[in-house]
Write a structure and sequence with these properties.
This protein is α/β, with parallel strands linked by helices. The protein contains 11 helices and 13 strands. Helix 1 packs across helix 2.
């Protein structure tokens, strides 16, 4: 017997197709899809019986053929600092992690994954040491947001509306596992669903997509999504960036920055965020801080300085705090906002560059134990 497919995470056209498949007339399917949409994405219901403005016979048919289930959670962890991490099983052997970080953005940010594994092999990132399994679908990306809102008990009810000031999850960052621009079709479709005003309703200006520098698709990202752009930079010259971010060998800094300058609607209210991980003795000198200022000339920008988050066997150490502060001072004097990102979720390996490393290690350990028994 086949398991019923879930409607949670589908877009409106897909919902309409599912309705037509169970006998709803095509002309009525669009209206019914709008009703389902509001229940799924505004109220977050997981039971068709809760859809009180949908006819009972249709609810019964929906319950027979479909579910509103989220993907299976195989692990849920909470850090000492309140960061929460979920390991989501999307299919046999297909797992991804997402992380909720409180007190980031307007209230809290969800870091979502766009791929299982990664192909980029950035040398400071543990996620990059795991082979790419596959791209995530738009439905699987949206499901990460649904899981987070379930866990935060943030859904309103018809009797109890949710005011903006009550929201804990206000920002989405595509900074989890994978390179979003290598999965742009599904990322763009997921953003359409997440930002829809009749549903989850997170503004596109509060959704940030981070890329390691897939230059040919940067302008397209802006045109299709209207999201904020972040660049995983980490070096100011090609020689060093070739080592840290091997993608730079394909799209060097000159090509990358030419593409960044084409990003739609850049201004002081819509700045590019440059992420710069601080690696002791590698990219943290004052000379490199000054080179970074020159590199960013003419681009509305802010720089997130990220203390390196260690992982077992990592070839780098985090820069000393005094070094990071002096680096930030150079940027600040040049007029750039350059906050030093407070490491969050390190104790549960939920910080930048650590995602899924622990779960992979645990599963390897479990396999070895099983083989030995």
């Amino acid at each position: 017997m086949t398991t019923p497919s879930s409607l949670a995470g589908l877009n409106k056209a897909e919902l309409a197709e599912k309705l037509v498949a169970i006998g709803v007339e095509p002309k009525k399917a669009r209206m019914r899809a709008e009703q389902l949409w509001r229940w799924i994405y505004h109220y977050g219901v997981t039971d068709f019986a809760a859809m009180t403005n949908v006819a009972k016979d249709l609810r019964a048919t929906l319950a027979e053929r479909y579910t509103l289930a989220r993907p299976e959670l195989t692990a849920a962890q909470v850090s000492q600092d309140g960061t929460r991490k979920w390991l989501v099983r999307l299919a046999p052997g297909v797992e991804a992690e997402c992380v909720f970080i409180p007190d980031v953005g307007r209230a809290g940010a969800l870091c979502v994954s766009s791929q299982v594994g990664c192909t980029l092999n950035c040398t400071f990132c543990h996620t990059g040491t795991q082979k790419l399994v596959r791209n995530l679908t738009a439905q699987e990306i949206v499901a990460q947001v649904l899981i987070a809102r379930d866990a935060l008990t943030e859904w309103p009810t018809p009797e109890r509306p949710l005011n903006d000031g009550d929201r804990q999850l206000t920002n989405i960052v595509f900074m989890g596992m994978g390179e979003p621009l290598y999965n742009l079709d599904h990322v763009a479709a997921a953003i359409d669903t997440i930002s829809d005003g009749d549903g989850i309703s997170i503004s596109r200006r509060r959704i940030t997509v981070s890329t390691a520098g897939v230059a040919p698709r940067i302008k397209e990202l802006g045109e299709r999504t209207g999201a904020m752009l972040a660049i995983s930079l980490h070096a100011t010259n090609d020689e060093l960036r070739d080592q840290l971010v091997p993608l730079n060998k394909k799209y060097n800094l000159e090509e990358l920055f030419a593409a960044i300058r084409t990003y739609p609607s850049l201004n002081n209210a819509k700045r590019v965020t440059f992420e710069y991980v601080m690696l002791k003795g590698v990219n943290d000198t004052l000379a490199e801080a000054k080179a970074l200022v020159r590199l960013l000339a003419g681009i509305p920008a802010k720089i997130n300085l990220i203390p390196f988050n260690p992982w077992p066997g990592a070839p780098y150490e985090c820069s000393d705090w005094e070094t990071i502060e002096k680096f930030a001072e150079v940027l600040n004097r040049a007029g750039y906002s350059s906050p030093i990102r407070t490491p969050r979720g390190r104790d549960i390996l939920a910080a930048c560059g650590q995602l899924r490393s622990e779960s992979v290690k645990q599963r390897a350990s479990e396999r070895l134990k099983a083989e030995a028994s």
